[in-house]
Amino acid sequence: MRWSHAFIPTLRDDPADAEAVSHRLLVRGGFIRQLAAGSYSMLPLGQRVRLKIIDIIRHEMDAIGGQEVVLPTLHPAEIWKKSDRYDLMGDNLFKLEDRKGVELVLGMTEEEIFAILAAELSSYRDLPQIWYQIHTKFRDEPRPKSGLLRVREFTMKDSYTLDVDRSGLDVGFDLHHAAYRRIFARMGLDTTDVQASSGAMGGTESVEFIVRSEAGEDWIVTCTACDYRANVEKAVSALAPVDDGDSEDLERFPTPGLRTIAALAEAHPDVAAPERQIKTLVYFVDGTPTLVLLRGDHELQEQKLLDATGAASVRPAHPEEIRELLGADPGSLGAVGVTGIPVIADVALEGRVNMTTGANEDDWHYRGVDVERDIDVGTWADLRAVSSGEPCVECASPLELWKGIEVGHIFKLGTKFSEAFGAYVQDEDGENRPIIMGSYGIGVERAMAAIVETSHDERGIVWPVTVAPFEVVVTVLRVDDAETMAAAEDLDRRLREAGLEVILDDRPERPGVKFADAELVGIPFRVTVGPRGLERGAVEVTVRRDMSTEEVEVGDVVERVSALVEAARADIIR
RNA sequence: CGGGCUGUGGCGCAGUUUGGUCAGCGCACCUGCUUUGGGAGCAGGGGGUCGCCGGUUCGAAUCCGGCCAGCCCGACCA
Asked: Can you give the pLDDT at residue A314?
């Protein structure tokens, strides 16, 4: 490839609307262009990287026995209604109508269609199967952001395992787990696999692959000492016991003007330390008003509420709604004596006595609350958000909280879709059983952005050689000098003949421009050809990652660069 | 959906407060000459319905109304 003929529109300035590093560098480097919010064009360089990522994924998926298919992205809404995901996914699902008025949707993931195909299987002997595809998914994100990190149209590798029993599912799941580790490692991504919630998808065991980055949107909890690691949506921590004293009688007492946990604690330190208060939140859980109870010093983790209730959506009640329901304003709420409204309580409140909580009348609270005696708790669940420094449940060491980018997610889906679409097989005993599915996703462009987030410097991107748009750039310093140009062209040809991916920068630009572009674009190795070096029969070879430079005799360049590329590959794959 | 901000050549921006002389700057682009190991210099040149629609006015990038789009924070989010 000759740079002079390539479409690589690099920019000297950062685009004004780009914040995230990957967004800035991918736009500046001429990899992508934005069309609309959450909608990006892949320019030639971007597409080269994207294809390399896809090749890695495809290779590893095939290696675990995956069979590639391509399914429609345009689906009749009917099948989404059949699986119940039409409502469950809410506004995140793109919906449209055809000319006949038939409702259609654009796929977000494609369990439905895979289940429909799986319905053609009839015997346990047909299983297991691993099916996958790599194509476009759509999500009507409420807020696309950060370039490729959160978009509305993107490429996903989604795969599905089909098994007759749990142990088969476990095997398929573990195969994916191992394949994902290899996939991300080969891209040069350092991922942490964490326990996660499977969210609206249902399912049980769920593991996310997270790249540590400030640009990420997921909060991850890891233990500073042991192996415990989980998404905050799922993470738990140990709690120091609280001394409540002996159970006492319920007593109403005046608390004029006290509306917050902190204010109440300050005014009544004897009975209302935050950890001895009950925080009462009012939520609408799929439209049903519900009281959510937590310890005074704990925060609600909404995903846990979703998981505990199986609801599609939850939202905090508005102040007016709260007054109508409980007769008091936030700040004086409690669940004591409340009937007719479901109560869900965090497990940290189990067995607690002598607690303090609002009395559902402004300026009044209860003390001496025995949670199990005085409150009609319908459901106990883990609802609390873990905070930094709390003790690990496994080893009691402090937990650490950090931000990351979710690049992959694997989980055990179960039989939800096979039951909905009649995907049953007969087992050895002639018994009809729903196929057990697993579901596994990787966001291709998000992985691309995550690589840039974690591999760049002040000059630009530093692509791992396995995903770089080109492995080598041959930079010609004097295009108008026939000898220099001839030497560069010869090198370009020999490097390509050695199997390397080369771009020849033959633009009539000044050296500084070419160096800057090569570094911005992030090509791992640069061969600099100029008349000065050629007089000595030498060129320079520069390693992008550390910008180290060595002089190499022209005759040795192919061997030297090949060795560097191989070493870089080996270092990534290990 | 709530809050904040922004829309002016390909990119980055000034101009809007105080309507006219405001279509302007830097980069990029084209031509020529010089230059050539870290984003060159000189000279000449091309390119913009000032987001869209409507209104006010003799006159609107500028004032008013409506709409649209994008960014950031929050809510939400496999």
From this structure: 83
First to last CA, chain A: 30
Would you list the DSSP string of A311-348?
Answer: -S-EEEPPHHHHHHHHSS-TTS---TT--SS-EEEEGG
Query: Of all helices (H) and strands (E), which one includes residue A440?
Result: strand A436-443
Structure tokens at A259: 């509306």
> What is the CB-side half-sphere exposure of residue A433 using CA atoms within 13 A?
19
Cβ of A519 less than 7 A from strand B: yes
> CA angle A132-A138-A143, nearest 5°?
135
Chain B bases near protein CB atoms (7 A cut-off)? 1, 10-13, 26-28, 35-40, 69-78
Q: How far apart are CA A282 and CA A332, in angstroms?
A: 12
Angle ∠(A456,A457,A459) on CA atoms, nearest 5: 110
Q: Which nucleotide is nearest to A551 (CA to C1')?
A: B37
Question: What domains can you pick out in chain A, each with its CATH number?
Answer: 31-235+401-453 (3.30.930.10), 251-381 (3.90.960.10), 463-573 (3.40.50.800)
In this predicted complex, what is the ipTM? 0.92
CA distance A125 to A114: 18
Specify whether the CB–CB gap between A485 and A531 falls below 8 A.
no
The pLDDT tens digits of the residues spanning A384-406 come to 999 889 999 999 999 999 999 99
Q: Note the pLDDT of residue A240.
A: 85
> Helix (H, G, I), strand (E, B), or coil: what is residue A385?
coil
Weakly modelled stretches of chain A, pLDDT under 50: none
Q: Which of residues 422-461 of A touch strand B (CB under 7 A)?
A: 441, 443, 446, 459
Residues A269, A340: contact at Cβ < 8 Å?
Answer: no
